[in-house]
Amino acid sequence: MSAGITWTNNTGLSGYWQDIAYGNGLFVAVSNNDNSSSGGNRIMTSPDGITWTVRTSPASNSYWFGICYGNGLFVAVAWSGTYQVMTSTDGITWTGRTAANTNSWMGVCYGNGLFVAVAITGSGDRVMTSSDGITWTARTTPDKTWYRVTYGNGLFVAVAYGTGTDRVMTSPDGITWTTRTIPNENWYDITYGNGLFVAVSPTKNTYQVMTSTDGITWTGRDASRVAGWFGIDYGDGLFVAVAIDGTGNRVMTSPDGITWTTRTTPTTPSENNWRAVIYTPTIFVAVGDFTTQTMMSGTLGLPYPYGVSIPILDKTK
């Protein structure tokens, strides 16, 4: 393990950054709002997670909540707005696309040649799929508040907020979906790594982490502390989760998804509501909202190669 232990704030662009993706050597973060008068500065990019550049989105009124990278394409989805899908081959120039319907789209992932997006609203059609990110097709689903979706081991798995113990659904093809019985929590984010699906919750009834080897049978786990855990990712042998609250302890890590350790996070110049985290081949990056310090980076406590500190960005979801 070489990342995710020691964290450093990095100055970013002010905004309400909800999600982050990495592809083709570029970090791309999306926001559901911004502080500009035009309202169009809802994308930022960085080659290293340290220096960021604002990019113009296709519509100034789209509330972007999810982004992923796959098959040479960045794809983002929005809760509302003129466009609810946008695509880019380079992360810099974006094109608005028409979603399958006007649901509130929150999460998107890529797997097995397919982009899959999930929504928190809709009537039996809260998933849409696309082979190219441009033309989308609605799919039949249960009416749960689906926030995030991931792909691993030949399976798409989505998690939801709400009532009941059926807030996970799985699909081998992105088209036909089946609900699964899980611990009764409000699940917000999910990732797959090292043969394991791991989800986190910002609220606590009994558990704030759950794990599954197959996406079907789930086991509740204890987080390192009770907190608003909103984002999770896996890389370099480590699961890393980020939170929206706490004092100097808004990250937790685990080598197995079961036993978690709280990590120290920067308290100055300010603490952020960390919403999302992503792993690249060398570093974790997290993005958040409300202050100018909208990103932080994590390492093992050693300098980044050649003396450059590793950045992590929080992503608001």
Description:
- With 317 residues, the protein is mainly β.
- It has one domain (16-265): Kelch-type beta propeller (Neuraminidase).
- It has no helices and 28 strands.
- The chain has a four-stranded antiparallel sheet with strand order 1-28-27-26, with no helix packed on it.
- A hairpin with a 2-residue loop joins strand 22 and strand 23 (238-243).
Brief digest:
With 317 residues, the chain is mainly β.
Please list the strands of the largest sheet in the order they lie side by side.
1-28-27-26
**Would you give the CATH topology?**
Neuraminidase
Total domain count = 1
Strand percentage lies at: over 45%
Q: Can you give the mean pLDDT?
A: 87
Tell the overall outline: globular
Number of strands: 28
SSE blueprint and pairings:
Blueprint: E1 6-10, E2 15-23, E3 26-34, E4 43-46, E5 53-55, E6 64-70, E7 73-78, E8 85-88, E9 95-97, E10 105-111, E11 114-119, E12 127-130, E13 137-139, E14 145-152, E15 155-161, E16 168-171, E17 178-180, E18 189-193, E19 196-200, E20 209-212, E21 219-221, E22 229-235, E23 238-243, E24 251-254, E25 261-263, E26 273-279, E27 284-289, E28 295-299
Antiparallel strand pairs: 1-28, 2-3, 3-4, 4-5, 6-7, 7-8, 8-9, 10-11, 11-12, 12-13, 14-15, 15-16, 16-17, 18-19, 19-20, 20-21, 22-23, 23-24, 24-25, 26-27, 27-28
